[in-house]
User: Which sequence fits this backbone?
């Protein structure tokens, strides 16, 4: 027991000897939360539109004015020549081209069905889909407005039984992606800091040779592991509290649920990242190798966590693989507690899965570490 | 049964397909300063790392102070001091913090730490630098600090793996003076070194090559029992002709020592004959005098003989 204390003491001395460490602990989360929280957004905004108005009538102009007033669109201009429209999409000057046909107004008045042509840049399929949704919305509003022009028509429509939807978004009423992204970023920061610190911390001792020196002392390998883990878990917990503080200061997003529960779940998650860190240290001889391997695991766990890509959209085989990823559960738990204030009762399946995988990963890593030393 | 303090019998160890040590026998008596000499790759480090329980032997019986390296791992670790080849203390901790850290890991009682530190500072002269970070010490001072850390728990056996490699000559000398002091205090020391001048300072040495001990004994008696004759050649442009000289029949080996050459001959009989042949090659006069064989001559002769037999 005494030995573990001295190991932990030594570790903290080394960590705080170096000012860069303190910088990493405070400045990295600040920058990440501030920049990523604002940058990573699934909201589609500022869609650049090029118009071709072949009709040039009050009706067509009113249609266009709907886009002017929408906060989602930026009108880049009007192009008379149909053949040159594609060059706007090619060069990226516009991601959407809208062509209003000749006789647009006449067709509406005569109650024929005019067709509006849309050319959409489909490279970013997600954004293309979302912008199409916005346009459909605008077209619908436009049509409602047209009805006001002909009282008899609107009277007719009133008699038709139309279903109207009144959506109400819970937990995130304005559908701000910030609210969704920011808890995820906290999870990422925790993953990165603890994973990299642990693997690099152990490999560094291997590199400078002090691990060999430690191994010839009578301390047992489990004491060595615990001596490494305690400081890094304390740093991890410190890190998550710092991050939550920044999130509150910058975005005004506070934890809806129990802070204690959040810290408890975080400590379970940290066990998995520490385990992974120890595992990486057993397969790397230099800090460079450790860095690369940690990077490899980090990318996998982030992309397969549902942070960027919803897991439900993945092929079934990959979906099963994501079940092995503790980050997957942790991000869900963090969002639930942060945004909904969910209690432990409703988080039991995620918590159990995380406990299972975290302990398995951790034990496997520690056993491997001990074998390597023995 | 009382074994010598270090007893190695029939020890073998391979890494992958490469045999690092092949059926090695070695004994070190209590209080001895024992040198393990050999070129890189001779198996010195493998032997040492096995003694300090860092790697386990493939076969053989190895005891340190009557403790089995396979069974009594922790006991051996608490009575041995081990200094690995590379300087391996925490560069970002101070001299004092390093010493106290290792004292704590070895369970040195708190009240004794200060006293032991004082004693270690006496011979290492590191006291004025106690607050300095270990990474900012000079090479020689680092070495002394590493030695101090391995001595903090008063080990019975001190095992050093090439402690002076890469250290300046003055610090090397100082380091050996410290080792002699320790020996006087009764510590058994096993030290490996590639330097022949250091080997001479040992009580006994074993010459290792390709995982085997080629010769062992006291340095003086080993050179005295050397049967070959060594002649020193002195003259101009000798090095240029080293290859043609080596081809003269009857010469076992030729080694350059600075400007001069050392010839190894099996006996005195062919001496005059060879002198004539060398004169033909050089085309001018030169000196050829018998010299006392050094440990280095012995070492080279042994290794050359070994590889000749091997081929």
Assistant:
């Amino acid at each position: 027991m005494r030995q573990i204390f001295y190991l932990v003491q030594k570790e903290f001395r080394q960590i705080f000897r170096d000012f860069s460490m303190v910088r990493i602990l405070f400045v990295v989360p600040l920058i990440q939360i501030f920049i990523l929280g604002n940058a990573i957004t699934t909201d589609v905004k500022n869609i650049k539109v090029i118009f071709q108005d072949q009709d040039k009538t009050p009706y067509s102009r009113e249609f266009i004015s709907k886009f002017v007033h929408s906060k989602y669109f930026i009108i880049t201009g009007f192009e008379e020549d149909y053949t040159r429209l594609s060059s706007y999409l090619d060069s990226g000057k516009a991601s959407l081209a809208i062509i209003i046909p000749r006789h647009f107004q006449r067709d509406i008045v005569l109650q024929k069905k005019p067709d509006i042509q849309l050319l959409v840049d489909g490279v970013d399929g997600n954004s293309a889909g979302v912008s199409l949704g916005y346009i459909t919305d605008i077209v619908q509003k436009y049509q409602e407005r047209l009805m006001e022009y002909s009282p008899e028509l609107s009277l007719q429509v009133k008699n038709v039984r139309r279903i109207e939807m009144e959506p109400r978004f819970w937990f995130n009423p304005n559908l701000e992606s910030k609210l969704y992204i920011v808890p995820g970023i906290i999870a990422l920061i925790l993953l990165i800091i603890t994973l990299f610190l642990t693997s690099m911390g152990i490999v560094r001792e291997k590199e400078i040779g002090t691990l060999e020196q430690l191994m010839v002392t009578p301390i047992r390998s489990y004491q060595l592991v615990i001596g490494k883990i305690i400081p890094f878990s304390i740093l991890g917990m410190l890190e998550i509290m710092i991050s939550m503080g920044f999130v509150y200061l910058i975005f005004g997003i506070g934890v809806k649920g129990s802070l204690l529960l959040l810290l408890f779940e975080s400590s379970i998650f940290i066990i998995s990242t520490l385990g992974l860190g120890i595992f990486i240290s057993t397969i790397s001889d230099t800090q460079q190798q450790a860095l690369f391997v940690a990077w490899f695991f980090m990318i996998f766990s982030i992309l397969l966590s549902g942070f960027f890509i919803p897991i439900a959209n993945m092929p079934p085989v990959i979906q099963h693989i994501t079940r092995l990823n503790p980050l997957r559960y942790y991000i869900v738990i963090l969002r639930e507690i942060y945004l909904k204030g969910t209690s432990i009762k409703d988080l039991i399946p995620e918590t159990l899965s995380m406990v299972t995988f975290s302990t398995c990963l951790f034990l496997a890593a520690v056993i491997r570490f001990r074998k390597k030393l023995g | 049964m009382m074994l010598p303090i270090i007893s190695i019998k029939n020890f073998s160890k391979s890494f992958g397909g490469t045999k690092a040590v092949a059926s090695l026998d070695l004994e070190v008596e209590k209080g001895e300063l024992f040198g393990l000499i050999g070129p890189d790759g001779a198996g010195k480090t493998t032997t040492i790392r096995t003694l300090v329980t860092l790697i386990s032997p493939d076969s053989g019986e190895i005891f340190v102070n009557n403790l089995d390296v396979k069974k009594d791992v922790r006991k051996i670790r608490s009575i041995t001091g081990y200094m690995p080849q590379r300087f391996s203390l925490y560069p970002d901790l101070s001299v004092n913090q390093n010493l106290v850290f290792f004292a704590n890991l070895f369970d040195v009682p708190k009240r004794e730490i200060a006293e032991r530190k004082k004693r270690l500072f006496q011979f290492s002269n590191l006291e004025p630098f106690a607050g300095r970070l270990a990474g900012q010490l000079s090479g020689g001072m680092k070495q002394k600090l590493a030695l101090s850390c391995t001595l903090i728990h008063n080990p019975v056996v001190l095992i050093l793996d090439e402690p002076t490699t890469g250290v300046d000559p003055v610090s090397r000398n100082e380091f050996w003076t410290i080792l002699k002091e320790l020996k006087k205090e009764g510590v058994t020391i096993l030290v490996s070194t590639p330097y022949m001048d250091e080997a001479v300072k040992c009580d006994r040495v074993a010459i290792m090559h390709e995982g085997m001990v080629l010769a062992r004994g006291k340095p003086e008696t080993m050179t005295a029992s050397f049967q070959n004759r060594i002649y020193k050649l002195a003259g101009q442009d000798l090095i240029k002709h080293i290859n043609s000289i080596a081809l003269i029949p009857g010469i076992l080996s030729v080694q350059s020592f600075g400007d001069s050459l050392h010839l190894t001959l099996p006996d005195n009989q062919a001496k005059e004959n060879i002198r004539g042949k060398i004169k033909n090659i050089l085309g001018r006069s030169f000196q050829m005098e018998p010299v006392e064989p050094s440990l280095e001559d012995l070492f080279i002769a042994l290794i050359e003989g070994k590889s000749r037999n091997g081929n």
User: Anything to note?
Assistant: The beta strands of chain A are 47-53, 73-78, 96-100, 117-120.
